[in-house]
Amino acid sequence: MTDATQRPYPQPDDVTQPFWDGISEGRLRLQRCGRCGRHVFYPRAVCPHCSSADLEWVDASGRGSLYSFSVVHRAPPGFEAPYAVALVDLAEGVRMMAGLVDVAIDQLEVGQALEVAIQGDPALPYFRPSPG
Amino acid sequence: MTGPVAAIAGVAESDLGIVAPKTALQLQAEAAREALAEAGLTFADVDAVFCAGRDEVSPSLLLAEYLGITPRYSDSTNIGGASFLAHAAHAAAAIEAGLCEVALIAYGSTQRSLRARSLGGTGAIPGPAQFETVWGLPLPVGGYAMAATRHGHLYGTTAEQLAEVAVATRAWAGLNPKAYYRDPITIDDVLGSTMIATPLHLLDCCLVTDGGGAVVIVRADRARDLAKPPVWLLGHGHSHSHLTIANMPDLTTTSAALSGAAAMEMAGVTHDEIDVAQIYDSFTITVLLSLEALGFCGPGESGPFVEGGRTAPGGDFPMNTNGGGLSYCHPGMYGIFTLIEATRQVRGECGDRQVEGARIALCNGTGGVLSSAATVVLARD
Asked: Which of B127, B128, B198 sits opposite A70 (nearest CB)?
């Protein structure tokens, strides 16, 4: 039997806490560099594009597209297969891993439009298909 | 400087497969002793130690203490399964700089006996993994699976083409008495095996075994006086592009594009001159992506490249002639075994699986979730 209490959960740190605080409020937020203007994910203390330390938190559009995915059949402890895990390219130019919800796992297509769907306990930024 | 600065003088495996109650340290010691003995050397001759463990924080300290070695050069670089090819590069560079003469590279793991492999994590996940482990993607296989999905989308690469790699590699394993699985398999066997993470089936995945290995690298002028003919380190390179799979810039282009080009340029050899290739096969997709990144075929062409048993015994691109991580052994990190097999091939010691006339070999390691790559080009006189 799947024991959901075994499921891993994020351990926020000084830099990532604002991201998870946003998620718990239902907001997907990213860092944006005040110097080069590019968005940064995962959250960092410095900008990997221009070496600046001037990073601010901004609301993300929540829109993206499916860069790639895998349907998991051999699940780690705490998860019940099958389910899809995705790499999502956000409109802001960053990529994040996410679970997919409200999808038929045998009808996923690389490139399809997605939108964020924050849910769960602890709350996590899942994605679901969107009209585009 | 003319000619190569260093050569492989000895190689050995420890016991492979399921070795309980032996320990990982014991496996390293067995392999190290045998690799040195093959060269006519002992622990007392070693002045540099290179080690990457899965469990130890300071594996070179542990190994050197255990073997009674006081090195003047020490390196515990860990870039995943490619580490040992990077160690070979570091050893050659240290030898060239006059920092050591006899380098010992060793690895051992009893992950199979200890049932130490885990696909995921539990509890609170710190660091960059807090954005990945929480999704239940089994790692590393899930990251490789995503790369295979992307490759299939861009280039039409099929499950059958992935399976070709596993089938050809198993055929080589049938010729290697030390291989863990030796019975032939078919493409249908691969496609019919348990799905792990789409599109990768169980038989697209490397083994989980125990095992260890060692490689001895010596300064060029000493190499000629030892028991085995020198296997020259002609070229090497390594790089890495990410740690976590979401941070890989392009899921179908590995760091072997950099490491391979560097190694080939240093060696001064062309692709046509490579007689045998040992390409780390953690998963079937790893091989396809590596073949493209190394330039043996163009982007997207690796599926057709391996079709028709091209990499199998008798094919025109002999690859992973020991049976690879897919069928011979895979004790967590496999890179050192690419060097061991390539050395034996160019020495002509491989018996039933010997590639006729093999003189120049290319080894490519991949570590993490397609994170790192290290390439080494070897040749006999």
From this structure: B198
Question: How many Cβ contacts (< 8 angstroms) between chains A and B?
Answer: 118
State the ipTM, two decimals.
0.97
Catalytic annotation present for B328: yes
Query: What residue of B is the nearest CA neighbor of A72?
Result: B197
Q: Does A117 touch chain B (CB under 8 A)?
A: no
Beta pairing partners, A31: A40, A57
A10 touches chain B (CB under 8 A): yes
CB distance B359 to B275 below 8 Å: yes
Under 8 Å CB-to-CB from B213, ≥6 apart: which residues? B11, B12, B13, B14, B31, B35, B84, B106, B107, B108, B336, B337, B340
CA distance B194 to chain A (A): 9
Cβ contacts of A95 on chain B, cutoff 8 Å: 246-247
Residue-level pLDDT, tens digit, chain B, 381 residues: 468 999 999 999 999 999 999 999 999 999 999 999 999 999 999 999 999 987 778 999 999 999 999 999 999 999 999 999 999 999 999 999 999 999 999 999 999 998 887 788 889 999 999 999 999 999 999 999 999 999 999 999 999 999 999 999 999 999 999 999 999 999 999 999 999 999 999 999 999 999 999 999 999 999 999 999 999 999 999 999 999 999 999 999 999 999 999 999 999 999 999 999 999 999 999 999 999 999 999 999 999 999 999 999 999 999 999 999 999 999 999 999 999 999 999 999 999 999 999 999 999 999 999 999 999 999 999
Distance CA B286, CA B288 (A): 6
Which of A90-112 are b and which e, b meaning 16 or more Cβ less than 10 Å from the residue's Cβ? bebebbbbbbbeebeeeebebee
Per CATH, the number for B6-115+210-234 is 3.40.47.10
Show me where the domains of chain A are located.
11-60, 61-132
A91 near B CB under 8 A = no
Question: To which H or E segment does residue B345 belong?
Answer: helix B335-347
User: A61-132 architecture in CATH?
Assistant: Beta Barrel (2.40)
